[in-house]
Amino acid sequence: MTYPDGSVYEGEFKQNKREGTGRYMYANGEVYEGSWKDDKKHGLGTYTYQNKSVLTGMWSRGNIMHAECRHLDGTLFSGRYSKSEPEGEGFFAFSNGLVAAGQFHAQTWAPVDFKRPGPKAKPPAPTAPTPFYAAQRLIKKSVFKMDMFESSGVVPAKRAFAGAPNFRQAGTLMNQQKGNQSQQDVPMSLIFSVAQPTLSGIRAIWKHMQNLFGANQVIWMSTREEVCAYAGEVPLHPRDRKALNEKLPVDVTKLSMEELAELDNIFALRIEADIQWRGGELQCFKETYAEDRNERKNIEVNIVAENQQVRSVEAVFEDFMNNDFNFLFHRVPLNASRFPTVAQIDAFISVLRDTGAGLEFPVVMCSRTGRLRSTIGMALATLYVAAANSQHNEGEEEEDALDDVDAEDVDGEGRAKREAKPEQDQSGPDYLKGEYAAVMKLVASIEGGEKLKKTFDRAIDEAGEIINLREAIYGYKTKYEQAPEELQEEIRREAVVALHRYMSLFVVYKYLCEQHATGFEQTYATWSLAAPQQPLFEQLGTPEEGPLVDFLWT
Questions:
Q1: In 3D, which of 166, 148, 194 has the Cα closest to residue 365?
Q2: Buried (b) or exposed (e) across 321-337, using 16+ Cβ within 10 A?
Q3: Which terminus in the chain has less CB density within 10 A, N or C?
Q4: 27, 70, 73, 101 from 54: Cα distances, Å
Q5: Using CA atoms, how far apart are residues 153 and 470, in angstroms rounded to an integer?
Q6: 227 C-beta neighbours (distance < 10 Å), count
Q7: What is the pLDDT of residues 383-408, one digit of tens each?
Q8: Measured at the alpha carbon of residue 237, what is the angle toward residues 231 and 243, in degrees to the nearest 5?
Q9: CATH architecture of the domain with range 8-111
Q10: What distance separates the 2 farthest-apart alpha carbons in the chain?
């Protein structure tokens, strides 16, 4: 096929697009020969430049990811690429036999110093692989597991969309508590959350946003830490065959956003290669859900996937953008086993500030199950909005929004599927309202702390339809009392983590209120290191060290 600019393509097509194996000869004489998908270079291929340099490697949706580039003078470069430019670790091998290792950053080469060893030198000890390389190895030998599983939906069916489990809007329970008078009493929130949806689920969410707000733009914030790719409609993630209920041991705090995106692409290529090897069939695992992770069952299923597209999450949203679904995709991983890191908090707030998410445009927090991680994202977003609104309502008394909500009165089946509120002694502090000694000490150490806690707890409640991050602390008490003695300490430690998370969010809210007033002169990282904040962080410690470690629900 000859194109108007004189370029010529010889190879396979699918639905009038280059797909399969083919050779593209550009009008300037450069040639690409290799795999294509959806009109883009995708898979193994070789590109020959006008100067006769030859680039051979793995491509993903038009961009080279890892390659060897051999020049006419015999020089060879082998390494990683990002956006078609060398980026990260690599090495040069020259025609005279010399080798130089190093890395590219912003198109600048930084060699690694090398000293010739003496005649009696011992070989160096093996070095640990880089976090990216270690993650890449785990993914390449993983099996595939569906994100969606039986009983994953907690939000009532009458408010759910097919393919979008746990889709919910911040403040839903509070609006229902007020007799559905949301227009008068509680402003309609622009903050939503969902489990990783199917493609149909994403379309349904877009339609809902248009019907609800007439939205022409939706911010999509992926709070998950796990790698994810879509095979057709279905989102998948990698798992070790011997530990199907455990995430791969990948520390995302040591990876850049570019590296995480590249891991998604690597995983997509891994799925695609496996489907081809199995003759067009996708073999994966589907989970049957249970609260106790050890009781979850995994069923192996085979799905016909011969004509299904395999894409990374980011590529899925790029395709939606190209088809008039104006989603702005942002990857903002949040740690759920502990409180998110300072860097994660700053990255999250930066997206909210830069995009107008939650204040001007609807925002959707997405995680694998749409439970804890996305609830933390919802809580951070509602706190951000509450802090912004507090600047406009200075001096107004906030209404106490912590009245009990009857599980039967609110949404029928909805609250009933959440854990029932545990009974507590009404004569002492109200622990369901977070009145623990450590919390109240923190509140008392802040000027205006009691008023701050009221608006803080209101935001926590708005995000708490599935998991209320304050009430969950006391919920562990019931589990603790009912558990066998050998499991009680583990449950108590989980309660310490929940308490630390709640108190840390309160400190973040203090930061947001202060910085909204000053136009965010300081990042959270800078603010947290300043001397005035040190007494607050000393009260937090960590779940393993500090004043909270012996917590026993008092």
A1: 194
A2: eeeebebbbbbbbbbbe
A3: C
A4: 17, 5, 12, 20
A5: 22
A6: 28
A7: 999 999 876 555 454 444 444 443 33
A8: 135
A9: Single Sheet (2.20)
A10: 85
Alpha helices per DSSP H over 57-196? 131-140, 172-177
In terms of Cα–Cα distance, which of 342, 337, 349 is closest to 377? 349
Please spell the DSSP secondary structure of 102-132, one letter per residue. EEEETTEEEEPP--PPPTTPPPPPPPPPPHH
Q: Which residues of the chain fall short of a pLDDT of 50?
A: 178, 180-186, 395, 397-419
Question: CB under 8 Å to 431, separation ≥6 — which residues?
Answer: 424, 473, 474, 477, 553
Cα–Cα distance between 194 and 176 in angstroms, integer?
Answer: 20
- Alpha helices, DSSP H only, in 324-470? 342-355, 372-392, 413-417, 437-444, 449-462
| Amino acid present at 102 | G
Listed by start position, the domains of the chain span 8-111, 428-554
Determine the Cα–Cα distance for residues 225 and 373; give it in Å rounded to an integer.
Answer: 9
Six-digit token pair at 165?
A: 């489990």
Contact 348, 340 (CB under 8 A): yes
Please write down the long-range contacts of 302-305, taking CB distance under 8 Å and 24 or more positions apart.
Answer: 303/231, 303/234, 304/280, 305/231, 305/232, 305/275, 305/280, 305/281
Question: What is the model's pTM?
Answer: 0.77
| Helical residues (DSSP H) of 253-357, grouped into ranges | 257-277, 313-322, 342-355
CB 390 within 8 A of CB 455: yes
Token pair of 381, please? 């977003």
Q: Which residues share a beta bridge with 109?
A: 104
Q: In what order do the strands lie in the sheet with 310-312?
A: 297-304, 281-288, 143-146, 234-239, 229-231, 310-312
Q: Which pLDDT score, from 0 to 100, does residue 461 have?
A: 94
Rounded CA-CA distance 39/32 in Å is: 13
SS3 breakdown of the chain: % helix, strand, coil, rounded to 5?
A: 35, 25, 40
User: Cα torsion for 304, 308, 314, 320, to the nearest 10°?
Assistant: -130
